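User: structure tokens for this one?
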Amino acid sequence: MLRLNPRSWSGNFSPRTRKINLKRMRKEEFDLAVIGGGITGAAIARDAAMRGMKVALIEKADFASGTSSKSSKLIHGGLRYLKQLDIGLVKESLSEREKLLHLAPNLVHSAPFLIPIYSGWKGRLEMHIGLFGYDFLASDSSLGRHRNLSPEELLQEEPLLRQENLSAGFIYYDCLVNDARLTLATVKSAHEHGAVVANYTQAVGLDIGKEPFNAVRFREVMKGKEGMIRARVVVVATGPWTGELFKLHSEPGPAIRPTKGVHLVFPENRLKVNQVLAVPTPDKRIVFVVPLEQFTYVGTTDTDYSASLDKILVEAADVDYLLDVLNHCFPSVNLGPGDIVSSWAGLRPLIMEEGDPSKVSRDYYIGLYDDGLAAIAGGKLTTHRTMAQNLIDQVLERYAHLLHGEFQTCTTDKTPLTGGEMMDYPSYLKAQSLGLKNRWGLSLTNVEHLINSYGRNHMEVLALGLSDRKLLNQLAPGCRVIKAQVIYGVEDEMALTLEDFMSRRTDLLHFNGGGRSEVVAAKLMGKILGWSRSRRRAEISKYRQTVQEMFHFRKGLF
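Assistant:
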């Protein structure tokens, strides 16, 4: 394999690390084996490793490739859960929101959320009371408190809003997050604390209940080679795939009710908003309209789902629903399916209960079985850290007879994720941006994107350009991603496919303003990973097929 920069890769997180890890999984013995490389599994591996446990984690696809990269990209208390009187969940979520602002300040950012209110909407009083409750439960928050807005103030903030019957509004504060990179930072942090992890490694068998070690049989997805992890305790953290994993076990697992959430992306010149809007819908839900650089994304739907777990498509009905909401709230824009530049659909792994999908609890379930198998399901992105903490606390108590050693208490609430080690992020971003722009000749957009993506680790990305200044060039004209990020994505973030980089190491799959950047990225990845010309073409073709699948809904519209 060709290495494009002559530096030491000791302690890195590369395909070579993965190869070594797979050998270790076959040979060594572990305290804990985690199945699932989404945000919950990653947080469990990090928590356990930081307590001194010997941990292995496997993920059948790429890290965050399921639910954890297909959310609304919010870290929030869940204002609507107050209406359901789920006060405990809201309080826990608000507490975790505050922690994540300090643990991953480059990835989690506070933002104003505006709610327009129209006369005749029966939820106005509930919303007003809910916001007071939200502020009360977040009394120690560093974010601002909500305030009322007049119709005139609303239109000054958001001139595209429908003016007819606009009676009032509110502004409150929550947070936005890069969900895929939050998961990746959590996985890398687990690795840095000693966890042995591998993506594209599927659990294909469970041999549970034979002390002193349970066993997880696995298969390397790309090569087909099988192996076995021996661990005292096994945790299933596979979200919507929980039922599939429990088919390998003698007991039934938690009943999951998958619901589908769809998001649509529009160019800024077709739907321009100045801050996040939380728009009430006719069916008494809330749809978020979120500006992101030169794009605006909108979501989400909430419908029951029973089709393939591995290919969740955006259907015409999903698009119709969101477009109807948007065109009602912004009548002058007249959006249609042709304005959509990308989309994504994901599944929420809700715990089974009857009723409207939007009213099903977002709380989580932890199951501990007699034989050393544990499972966690449900929950939400915001509470992933405390979910992991609670699970490990219970594992250490329930399976004390299996686990040997002195393990520490949880410190994940005080230890920043990799790259997030700074006290005052806004000041850090401002100082670094000015310095790097002048020193490296990068645009301010590129510099801010680097720092927001990698935090303090952005200097490792820039260091790749010391030996080859061309690596500081954009992947394509107008693209905010530079070539060095491709190298870093492979050698320090274990990207193995073109889609890994385009979709999860960066967000170019959904927010690409820079032309055919996938061709340049594939060429750079191919040099490092030793791809043949045919393999490189296959990676580009497969990625473009993924892009086409984002527009599956067009088959039902035209």
